[in-house]
Write a structure and sequence with these properties.
Structural class: mainly alpha
Radius of gyration: 18 Å
Strand order of the largest sheet: 1-2
Shape: elongated
Distance between the termini: 38 Å
Helix content: 25-40%
Order of helices and strands: HHHHHEEHH
Number of helices: 7
Length: 154
Amino acid sequence: REVYQEQGCVNCHTQQTLATVGTDIERGWGTRQSMPLDYVDQSPVFTGYNRVGPDLANVGARRSEADWHYLHFYNPEITSPGSNMPPFAYLFHTRPIVGERSNRALELPEGFQPEDGYEVVPTPEADALVAYMLSLSQDYEIREAPTPEKLAHK
């Protein structure tokens, strides 16, 4: 959460599922709209004010693979060709391989790999940011914000 704040992710991403025209629910970004109860224990609250990239309120439920997030932060072009998100490669170390390759090394596709004999591994900050992304989920029921399926059965 601290790394998310430090990196300024809130400048391009919201953390609030909207249920208005062209809804986030229709996009598959959440199952219900966000409610104030979703933010009770958060300070500061990162609802966001500008949405250049997708909403992240449920990114942990949508994208539960840590490897996807590591690759996305290293260079978004790997996972999302055409993305306007900048790479966060500085949250990773490119280091010489000494002996065996690290089990933490990213599996980078051709065109993104370091030179032979080197590997890319996440820093503790990258680990923290990925853990935070995986924790983001509003995939639980709130009586005041029923899912569309619950509304249809009323």
